Known about the structure:
Elements: H1 3-41, E1 42-44, E2 50-52, H2 55-62, H3 64-97, H4 101-111, H5 118-129, H6 134-141, H7 155-177, H8 182-190, H9 195-206, H10 208-223, H11 227-232, H12 240-249, H13 254-287
Antiparallel strand pairs: 1-2
Amino acid sequence: MSATAMSLRNGWRGLAFIAIPVMAITIFLFYPAALSIIGTLVHPKDGGGYTFSLQSYVFFFTDGYSLANLARTLWTTVVTLILLIAVTLPIALYMRFTKGPLATVIQALALFPMFVPGIIICYALIRYMGPNGWLQSLLSLVGFHHYASPHLTPWGPVIGLMWDGMPLTLLILISGLSNISNASIEAARDVGAGRLRILVSIITPEITHSLLIVSALNFLGIFGQALMPFMLGPTNPEMMGPFMLRTFSSVRDPLQASTQATITFLICSLAGVAYVRSIARRPREDRK
């Protein structure tokens, strides 16, 4: 068999391997999503036929409550993302450059939320930081009696989403830091570079892709989150996840719920594009 025929055969074999998952994604994800998006733009007329209309989008962007929910979702997502990276990056740096039992214990504690269901995290945080919870009781024992619970405030979902997103963020950052050679760090120290200079000039450029991936994945996960904002956050304004759920199940307005979902999808697609571009650009940069 010639090399051309062998290459063609291997190509068809590869396509056969990916055909089933691609078909499954198309049938169960892309097709329903496309129907939902088209349904927000094309509406049946009373006398038969269909008409194109942007009325549901006009309502969303002229409704103060809907815009307040969108603003709350953006605020929660950005604040959670910033705090998540600020908390996990020092932990990742410590575990990358420190060996010993203490580093192992810290890693185990940081990865523990990965194995806890979200609903359990919510109830645990309510019992811990809620009114008359364990934290308030501990503070009362030391004489602090002015505790204000973050439960059912904008900071409630931030705390819960940080706890939930910490393991994945930490694993990705540790993976990026593992690509930094100890030789480059030692060489920088030999020429007099301090810790801050090493962090800015050597470590940060090497983990730029990891930071982009962490930011994109967490943005996608936080923006569309429904459980933790529903259980830990306020109801006015609320995040887009609980807002869509309530619009569909309680208000019984599928059209407006689909419109909210489409707007959420379009915003999240920006993070998805950034993630895909970062993944596609990395092999080209590695070949340089």
